[in-house]
Amino acid sequence: MTRVGARGDRRAGECNREPLAMARIQCSCGRAYTIPDDRLGTPVKCAACKRTFVAGAIDLSRPRPSRAATAQAIASPGKLRVGELAVIRGLLTREQLNACLRYQQDVRKLPGQDDLRLGAVLVGKRLLTQAQLNALLKEQHQGAVSAAASAVELTPSQAGGRPVTDEQREAVRRSVEAAAQQQAEREAKAAVAAAHPGLLSRVRGVHVAIAACVPVVAIVVALAWPDPAAKRVLVAYLESCDEAAVAPDASLALASLGLAVREFGDITLLPSARLDYSEELAAFARQGDLADDWWELLATVPMSDAKYDALVLLVGAFPEGLTPRKIGGLQATEQPAVCRMVSRQRGMSMLSDGRYRFVLLKASSPTWRCDWKVAACELAAVVK
């Protein structure tokens, strides 16, 4: 593998006394180099973005992308990075974006700067305003949600019909309690009607009745005990997404996933994660020169990928005016679940069968609370 850099072409020329034919190559990040012709077709490593690519001469006569290709890219903002989206929108030139990417790579090598985001660089260099960056981030997020929704096509079938509802479980519990009470009353009356048995016999009779009822009650309660709240919300949401319904229950999700569900079942909850944003909110509060906006926090404050992804999904649930500096603290719980479905995307006719991974979120702060809601869905495996 050949590593090319700013001085790669000069060193290659100095190694040979006879002049060599040179070719112009370019990395996908935009960095261009000059190398000898005999290195064309070999792998090289870009000194700017550290990617490895196969060297190929630049076709200087290549036309600019067609309007159709640009329109297709604009129609899928969820698949684009913020920088690429800014170039398509005409807010940046390709040269400005490449320069900022090189600057970001150089700064990330410094201690404590490995999480520097491109949005912060673009605003810091005054190439974008904060309002423009927020608009791009929102557009990117909305496009990602739509792309995730359009990829959903599957759903597991139910083995035994529709799931038991909470009302049915409650009715079973009440029936069990009533039966136990009636049994106790019958035992008491039988003891009184007997020929005045001794105290020991009475105690023994009550103990036998209790011992006989306990296993039955335990089995019925175990079967009728309600599922965890997150699972109940997911079941209710998938039921409301029935393909015969007009629209799903919006109160059960952060945003509609566009599902039209025919069958579902086999829901399995995966290990949950608790996310505390205290440190991130405190770090953002210390940066008084930034706009009090959640997208500003996402663009400037370093955080783990799990926290970042969950907060991006939660942004749409925050009430208007509940900004990072006013919320007073934020804790969230992420509950992933795997479910098999037979479904289609609303507006489409093709059904597919497979397993999906759902993400449910709940969050709370001193001034606000959001109970379990379905936040995202992605394909896990196709059922053949």
State the helix count: 12
Following the backbone from N to C, one meets helices and strands in this order, namely EHEEEEHHHHHEHHHEEHHHEEE
Terminal CA distance reads: 41 Å
The portion of residues forming beta strands comes to 15-25%
Q: Please tally the β strands and state the result.
A: 11
Question: What's the overall geometry?
Answer: elongated
Helicity range:
40-55%
**Rounded mean pLDDT score:** 75
Pairing-aware structural class of the strands and helices?
Answer: alpha+beta
Main sheet makeup: 6 strands, antiparallel
Residue ranges: pLDDT <50 for 5 or more in a row? 5-18, 59-74, 147-161, 220-225
Q: What is the count of distinct domains? A: 4
Gyration radius, to the nearest Å? 31 Å
Explained architecture:
By secondary structure, the protein is α+β, with helices and mostly antiparallel strands. It has four domains: 2-54, no CATH class; 73-151, no CATH class; 166-224; 236-382, no CATH class. It has helices spanning 8-14, 67-75, 82-88, 94-108, 118-124, 130-151, 166-193, 199-224, 229-240, 278-285, 294-300, 305-314; strands spanning 2-4, 22-26, 32-36, 43-46, 52-54, 154-155, 259-269, 273-276, 331-345, 352-365, 368-382. A hairpin with a 2-residue loop joins strand 10 and strand 11. Residues 5-18, 59-74, 147-161 and 220-225 have low confidence and may be disordered.
